[in-house]
From TrEMBL:
Residues 7-132 form the Nudix hydrolase domain. The keyword Transit peptide does not apply. GO terms for biological process: AMP biosynthetic process; ATP biosynthetic process. GO terms for molecular function: bis(5'-nucleosyl)-tetraphosphatase (asymmetrical) activity. This is 8-oxo-dGTP diphosphatase. The keyword Nucleotide-binding does not apply.
Length: 295
C-alpha cells in the first residue's frame, strides 16, 4: 500500500441527499470567503478518523447529523501548493437545524440538474454525476477484527476469556464513535471476551443487543470448518445493517464468501489489522462499494 505524501491535506465530506417527489435532492453549501457552492466537507483534525471527520463536517456545515452510505470516489487536487485529498460518501439525514456561520452562510437543497449547474467546481460536478445513477439506498455490512488483547502466549487461562488490554479498550471506545457514522446496526460477535468487549461501547451507544455466534469464534469446530463465511452469507440475505466482530484468521473467508454471494471480485488480500474493519455496502443483493479502514 502506497504511503500518503507527508504534506498531504486530508479532508472528508458527503453528498447529503433526501428523497423528493421528483427524485433525490442534494444539499449545497455556500462559503462567503470564496463565494462558491460545493458539498459539505472539511479538513480532518489531528488523529481524527476520516469517517468521523465526514460526519462532523457535514453536521457543522449543514446542521444535519448524517448517516453515511456508499463510498464515493475521493477527489484529489492541489491546495496552496500542497496535495489535497477529500474522501466522500453518500449520506442521508433529518432536516436538521442550519445556523449560518463565517464558513457557511447559506445552504440549499436542489434537484440534481440544478445542483450540477450551481456547483462552482468541475470536480464536484463529476462527483455528483458519479452519485446520480445510484443506488442511493444501501445497506452496510461491517466486518470488524477485535482490538488489542495482549499476547496470547502470556495468557494462562482459557483463550476464550482473554480480555482486551488497556490499548484495546481505548480503541473500542474510538471505534464506537467511528462506526456510529453508518447508523444503527444489529451486532453479532464471536463468543470470546475480546470480541464482545470490542463491540460493547458501540452496542451501548446505539442501544443494540450483542448476539454471540460460535461461527465467528476461534478455537471451535465451526470456525475451523470455515462456517464463518457461510454464516455471514446468511446474514447478507436478511438485508439488515449488520456489524460482525470476529478474529483475524476468519476475516478473509468471511470477505471472500461475501463477495462470492454478492457477485463481486474478492480482494487479493482481505486481511485486517486489529481494530480494522471492512464496510460492504449492498443493494438488491449486489455489492455497491467496499471500503477497508484501520484505526
Amino acid at each position: 500500500m502506497a504511503l500518503d505524501p507527508p504534506d498531504l491535506i486530508r479532508a472528508a465530506g458527503a453528498i447529503l441527499w433526501r428523497p423528493s417527489t421528483d427524485g433525490p435532492e442534494v444539499v449545497l453549501v455556500h462559503r462567503p470567503k470564496y463565494d462558491d457552492w460545493s458539498f459539505p466537507k472539511g479538513k480532518t483534525k489531528n488523529g481524527e478518523h476520516t469517517l468521523r471527520a465526514a460526519v462532523r463536517e457535514v453536521w457543522e456545515e449543514t446542521g444535519v447529523w448524517p448517516v453515511l452510505g456508499r463510498r464515493l470516489s475521493s477527489r484529489e487536487y492541489e491546495k496552496e501548493r500542497r496535495p489535497k485529498r477529500v474522501d466522500y460518501w453518500a449520506a442521508t439525514g433529518n432536516d436538521g437545524d442550519f445556523r449560518p456561520s463565517e464558513e457557511v452562510d447559506r445552504i440549499e437543497w436542489l434537484p440534481l440538474p440544478e445542483a450540477e449547474e450551481r456547483l462552482s467546481y468541475e470536480h464536484d460536478a463529476d462527483l455528483l454525476r458519479e452519485f446520480a445513477p445510484g443506488p442511493n439506498h444501501t445497506t452496510p455490512y461491517i466486518v470488524l477484527r477485535h482490538t488489542s488483547a495482549g499476547d496470547k502466549h502470556d495468557w494462562q487461562d482459557d483463550d476464550l476469556l482473554r480480555p482486551l488490554d488497556s490499548r484495546g479498550r481505548a480503541e473500542a471506545v474510538a471505534l464506537a464513535e467511528t462506526l456510529a457514522g453508518f447508523g444503527a446496526a444489529r451486532v453479532f460477535s464471536s463468543a470470546t471476551a475480546r470480541c464482545m468487549e470490542t463491540v460493547l461501547p458501540y452496542a451501548a451507544r446505539m442501544g443494540a443487543e450483542i448476539r454471540t455466534d460460535w461461527a465467528f469464534s476461534m478455537g471451535t469446530p465451526m470456525a475451523a470448518s470455515k462456517e464463518a463465511g457461510g454464516r455471514f452469507a446468511q446474514l447478507l440475505a436478511d438485508g439488515v445493517p449488520t456489524l460482525v466482530c470476529t478474529h483475524g484468521e476468519l476475516v478473509p473467508d468471511v470477505i471472500e464468501r461475501a463477495c462470492e454471494v454478492l457477485g463481486a471480485e474478492a480482494p487479493e488480500d482481505a486481511r485486517l489489522p486489529k481494530g480494522g474493519f471492512w464496510v460492504l455496502h449492498t443493494a438488491g443483493g449486489s455489492l455497491v462499494s467496499a471500503e477497508r479502514h484501520h484505526l
